[in-house]
Amino acid sequence: MRNKIVYLVAFLLLGSLVWYLFIKPYDYSVSITSKTFPGTINQSIKSWGNANKNTVLLEERDFLNIDQQFKFNDSTYLYQWKITPVNDSTSKIKVYIKDVDHSLGNRLIIPFFDTGFEKRTKRTILDFNNALTEHLEKFKVTVLDTLQQLPDTYCAYIPIKASQFGKAKGMMQNYPILSTVLVDNNVELNGRPFLEITDWNREVDSISYNFCYPIIKSDSLPQNGIIKYKKFEGLRAIKAIYNGNYITSDRAWYALLDYANKNGMEVWERPVEVFFSNPNIGGNELDWIAEIYMPLKE
């Protein structure tokens, strides 16, 4: 009986060693807890990676799982990010890291020494965490716990295609065209500028949207081949208040999707943003206000 126990223990130890050295899919792992929702983390991982010229997005297996590749001198690191929502305001991030070219050597050394691989990984994850923390300090999203009704309105608009990150740039480029033509032709304005998303491809973070200005309909609206006119159909929606730079107002989209999911609501992923601040004036970005609506399926 004693020999059987010894053999079993030896087999388990050998099996664990083989798994650790040759089967385990990563060399090192790090955990982070962040007080935000998964959408912000998803976008932050990708924007942080895009800012690093040595980083490539390999695959976004789904919204909560992202694979990146990092180049450090003669080493290629694979980062696998897994995002897990904990509650309404907190998410856990688990990062699995593998040195593609020196994996076995790292696994042999890591239990006994503080390796260069570990030090570099810790610095990289710390850099990301600092960037995420800094980003979270620059905006605020408040989801309202009541349904809202957006009214019908007639509007002048310019259709635009862009990345999510490029949304605000597209607005800034077209705002002078829209506002100048309307003012110069004495078109009567009838509300605040807004945009409506007409297509949102979350797999590649691309959007199509109409940048709109509510106006009073008349028979003498200016025609220039760029500006179009239509009736914006009102809708019932869930609503959030966004404070911050409009470049990242899509953070409120994800907050509303989370809210809808947790409350069993079906929504169209075609948010509407109504802008109450003029970014050209500057000032504290946390004082900028936008109302964000996510239409309900009815």
Automatic annotation (TrEMBL):
<dbReference type="InterPro" id="IPR011256">
    <property type="entry name" value="Reg_factor_effector_dom_sf"/>
</dbReference>
<keyword id="KW-0812">Transmembrane</keyword>
<protein>
    <submittedName>
        <fullName>Effector-binding domain-containing protein</fullName>
    </submittedName>
</protein>
<feature type="transmembrane region" description="Helical">
    <location>
        <begin position="5"/>
        <end position="23"/>
    </location>
</feature>
<keyword id="KW-1133">Transmembrane helix</keyword>
<keyword id="KW-0472">Membrane</keyword>
